[in-house]
User: Fold this.
Amino acid sequence: MSTAEDLPVLGAPVDRVDGPLKVTGQAPYPSDVDLPGQAHAALVQSTIAAGRITDLDTTEAEKAPGVLAVLTHHTVPRLPRGPMTSLGVSPPAPLQDDRIRHHGQHVALVVAESREQATAAARLVRVEYAPADPVLDFDDPRAVSVDDPWGLDSHRGDVDAGLASADVTVDAVYTTPDNTNNPLGLFSTLAAWEGERLTVYDATQWPAMVRETLAEVFGVPEVSVRVLSPFLGGGFGAGLRAWPHVILAVQAARDVGRPVKLVLTRPQMFTSVGHRPKGVQRVRLGATADATLVAIEHHSTSLLAVEDDDYEPFAAGSAVAYACPHVVTADRQVRANVPAPVSMRAPAHAQGNFALESAMDELACALDVDPLELRLRNHADVHPALGLPWSSNALRECYAVGAERFGWSRRPARPRSRRDGHWLVGQGMAGVSYPWYQAPSLARVTVTADGGATVASSGMDIGTGTYTVLTQLCAHLLGLPLEQVRSDLGDSDLPEAPQAGGSGLTSALGSAVADACERLLGALLELVRDDPESPLHGSDPEDVVAAGGGLRRRGDPGRGETYAAILARHGRPQLGADGASTPAQPTELGMALAGAFGAHFAEVRVDEDLGLVRVSRVTTVIDGGRILNEKTARSQVIGGVIGGIGMAVFEDTITDPTTGRIANATFGDYLVPVHADVPDLDVTFVGEPDRASALGVKGVGEVGLVGVAAAIANAVHHATGVRVRSLPITLDALL
Amino acid sequence: MRTFEYVRPDGVPGALAAHAGDAATAFLAGGTTQLDLMKDGVLEPARLVDISRLPMRGSTTTGAALRVGALTTMEELATDPTVERRLPLVREALLLGASVQLRNMATIGGNLLQRTRCRYFRDPAVPACNKRAPGSGCAAVTGPARMHAILGVSERCIALHASDVAVALVALDAVVEIEGPGGARRVPLTEFYLEAGGRPEVEHTLEHGELITGVEIPLPPEGTRSGYLKVRDRVSYEFALTSAAVALLIEDGVVRDARIGLGGVGSTPWRPRAAEAVLSGAPATPEVFREAADAAVAGAWTVPGTEFKVELARRTLVRQLRTVAEVTR
Assistant:
């Protein structure tokens, strides 16, 4: 039978198969879904950051028009915390006691006939607090810290000796602020019980996890819980956990015996569904005079909630970014009375890369060597920690192609040497080595009586093109036209797939779909091989290919039959096969598993007097292994670069230092790039299919964001001579 | 649900009567501020008097002034031929002031009366706000306050007046036309606004129940050059960190007439008359511009988050003076 390598058609820039649904408003996003008889809920949130509730008076709220119930810690039964997932612990269960752990913590949920009634009544809930002095920042002596939270701290060689042997060293501290994921779609949960059966339409990137969590928290079998997330208005990681508001909506639906819909407000999105946590990083680099790295030391501290965890090893990536004999990376987290952080597009790496790639630029300046040349001289030809060859690595090609497209060779070496009127013009670059990630996945592929096929999986399309690439993949593997393949996604009743996150879904789910297609073709072949009525009777499997909507003899396409004909003759309405994929094991392969690589080249203009920073050009080159759809992959990288521009010069979730209240929790006050802030973005893919992945795919969901902040910061230095080590880079730092 | 009465009277007298000095009544025009604040629970009027269809829309040029009806939209005024030809600073302030969607809704009268964007004012969960709850204190002075004011403020309130076009209009000595139960009156815009230093909850001299019916904008002398510079982190769709409206009449290299408005810095649209005095009769040189800018921000009152604005405001004004005067060296 044929395999994926034989299929050159993959990669075509096919339009999104769900595009027409989206642009005509027919795609049911979570907050669009309504059920007959549904009630609406609104949250009441804490206005202190630490302490206790001393009195919670719901009398007025309960009397308000349309109110059905008010949930508080007095009414909600003791619920267990959700399970440990492959990404870590579940958030604490909501409304379990009178303790306040952060500003914006849910303290009550009002359920009413309409959303307006619920919102109005929520303002009538009177909460009295006994406030405590909150811990809000790293430097609070009362703060509890956690060293090496994930066991990822690394040591290689002798970093002190390496630094001592260096001709040139850099020692700098970099800070990054809280950023908020802020998907455009407000997160929404619609929960409906029918007896012990629970159906939930949820804004999640991981339906299977939400199902498991709800089953455990509410004490029902997993098979009786169905979680649907067929479309999502963005997530950027915020949809990777079953948040307290999800639990509350389900509890409320049980309490009032009706479906309950809860849609968060924009300010609530800042405190309820995570954020990229702020951090402080110290990087020490040492190099010999010939620009050879001899030491990398990277320490990070990031902020964490008091009773929750988050995976943010800022420094870990620095252990494998460059060939270097002496390396130390160490991460630490400090607990504070802040809302729980969560993965936000390229968690840890977005922040860690900013520090490392800024320090590399500083080192290049100190060595008086071109920043690109410094990176090439220290390129990790093999995995720096394992010493194994990479399963794929086109980082050098990223640098070469990017430099050529951008015109890097024409960049003057000295900072502050180009201007255009009152604009100082500068150029900077950064490299990215994104880590490999993959989780096990299942999928089912079914051919039906009409001759078409369906892909089914609980995995969801966060908006990046999963529907499209799975449809493409299945169509190619089964020899069907695109329009005869449908993908059903985002339904926990379907075969379990991992989260849309970690840049790992396409490889995991795509491989499972490929496996299912192969098994399905095998089953079809079994049917026809022993069937005297089939034109393929007695054929050797090696001589049969999937083409033209069915099975054909290789080299003799006239001899074969369609799937519809096979199913009809055998009296089957459909024939399906389950497929699975498991992550590759590096030791078995003798290869280091490579994630995506990339290089960004940025040009900025800085107003000499006013400090205004404008990004005028970004060239990005990505090695994502095999690209299944050039169009959706490019869109994804463009989105990543825009997210990187936001991180570099705009995004800053500001917490009031005394109250713990987020001071800019609206889209008017929390700045993300608008169209006018985004220049033309030049995105190119290079590289070969990855050798360790069945499809050769490496995810591109996050790599596009990583490195943009450093490239821009380095360009700002080149433009102005001012090194800004704190994000976002705003005019205040450049006056 | 919080309910309110909605009425849409015919004519200005009907609107005034429907308002009738009732403290719980508010006028509704474009609604771009009023409705936001109601949704946020900051304003809770018992009655909204919709004036949006009253005959107070459109502009006329008469001799030396442009008279603008209060319900003229920002977009309509920005494309008015007189504004395009004679008042570049007004046009630019309008176009930089809001997205086209907002400009099509928001009215000039409403723009002048827009409330501060201070996030402490706009969140009723914050207890300390002298503007919202007189005497309760100010949470912004000890909080992160990058978007706050440095002129006409005190520890009682550092809220910013966020209008762009009002900055241009104070520079031009625009006059507000008002009708109320006590009859009609005219107030120069420079005397219309009240600084936040004393009673932050009182922002202007409009009495409750009075209605702005129009604005008269004196046209600067022929030969005057003008423009509006808005400095902000984003290219578009953001309130000003600082801004400067400048109109200059320069003859033989000497400034004959200087009009300046500063935005992003004041509790009111700021008219730095001391800076105008420095410029008046002086040569149009960078040194003089810098001296004027120093005078413009004299008396600034800052908190840690707003300290940078003093220098930024200076540089913004110098840049705009140089741009308008075409002094490039």
